[in-house]
Amino acid sequence: MDRDPSPSSHEVNDAVVAQDVSTDGTPGTHSSTGSSPSEVQLRNLTYDWQHSSARFKDIGGYDDVKAYLERRVLEPLLAHRDGDDRFSRFSVEPESGIMLYGPPGTGKTMFARALAGELTVPFVELSPADVTSMWINESSDRVKTLFDEAKQIGSCVIFLDEAEHLFGAREYSGKGSHAEDRKVTSEFLAQLTHEDREAIVVAATNRPGDIDRAILRPGRLAAHFEIGLPDEEARTAILRTHLTDVPSSLSDAEYANLATHTAGMTGADLADLVDEARRNAADRDARVLTRDDFPSTEDLQVIATELEPETDDLPTVDDGDNDEDDPRDRDVAVRSKADDDGGSDDSAIGYQ
Ligand code: ATP
To answer: Where is this region: Disordered (predicted)?
Structure first.
């Protein structure tokens, strides 16, 4: 976020959103309650709301997480928007609170952007510095402002990065933590619990063990997904995704070879590998990128030995029955499925 989210500028912006401004020719987006604000309207808000061009197809692997989000978020919202009442007939609400956890660079931000892109709704990406202030009470006012703006917009996606700083465990942060931090957590809890909240809140953390379990309960961030290191199948998919628009002669066997020898790498590491290969191909003025533009198998093995995995997990909000349909048990369900069919690598998590 690049603007000061002070409540005073927000009051001025109410009027901007209330008007139906569409002077920039941006194709209109439609929330479940009608038209979503144009780029011009979004620019006049306090927070840096944007439209996202990302889609699920840009994310390699993690098919089970995509399928879940398709079914539980996209389908109900898009059906409602199209006037299809098959979900509302049974009072089926879309999932609107999601916690993603896993090592840095595994695509958690991409998931939030892609969700907004698939829904064609505005998206805002926030780190703790965007909402925490050194001034007493200002941080919780900033949280209120954020959700006020979300309410004006209607259907939208709020992405909260480094969620452990916003939702630090209150029970053991009581003594050491700043009173302001606790107010921020309490304000988020209150805002997330509002019944008429249309905003989909996606939070991400590399330190799931530090999250206040109260935030993970039904009605708040109830769907939990581990976005772990990609397994071999996911690594192949990520490499393919990043080479989609590149002239390349890589065969299936060469993709498989690269995927085999990049165990322990994140999606971000694989994206870097592809960037370097593109540069190598350009340097030699090649017509197509080849396997030789990537590091040799031996060099990849050296890189792999430098990657050190660790593990961490979300606090338990399990009610003991491990029911796949119960949101409190979803992280368990999705993780075990991912281990079986190409979501994430169970060789663990270096979350720092
Ligand atoms: P952090 O925890 O550090 O915020 P993150 O998990 O949010 O990291 P992203 O910012 O989403 O990771 O990913 C960084 C970059 O890595 C992306 O812009 C993309 O280029 C690449 N990347 C990561 N995961 C994937 C993936 N599954 N498919 C394609 N690209 C990926």
So the answer is: 1-39, 305-352
